[in-house]
Amino acid sequence: MAKQTKPLPALEWLQPRLKLTRALSLFSFIALFVLLLVWNLGFADLHGARTWVVLSIQLVPLLLLAPGLFLGSARAHAWTCFVVNIYFIQGVLAAIDPARMLFGILEALISFELFCSALLYTRWRFQYDRKLAGEA
């Protein structure tokens, strides 16, 4: 028995969801970037490591994704879902340490929000593009 394809949602249903998830993705992305920057410049005990090296390691993956996210690329949002898992894991591990608990909780929550919003944006954007191309 062949699997029947589900009908795509209407464009009117997809448009507000695309706007909301894109805005949430951008907000979370910027919040994560700012959190990492502020934490490492102001609060982190780097034990003698150079600040610019730590910042480079943490921020370069986000900077590579930034152009695609700001342009609204569905593929960049999909890649963000993969990359942001690193920050979620880092946040959970930091939350275990009492000295970095607040940072860890914030990082895990922001990265989780970024993951969910980017995932929904990717799904709905591909559905939107398929609907615009004339697929039923």
From TrEMBL:
Keywords: Membrane, Transmembrane, Transmembrane helix. It comes from the Bacteria. It holds the Pfam family DUF2069. The chain crosses the membrane at residues 20-39, 51-71, 78-96, 102-121. This is DUF2069 domain-containing protein. It comes from Aquipseudomonas campi.
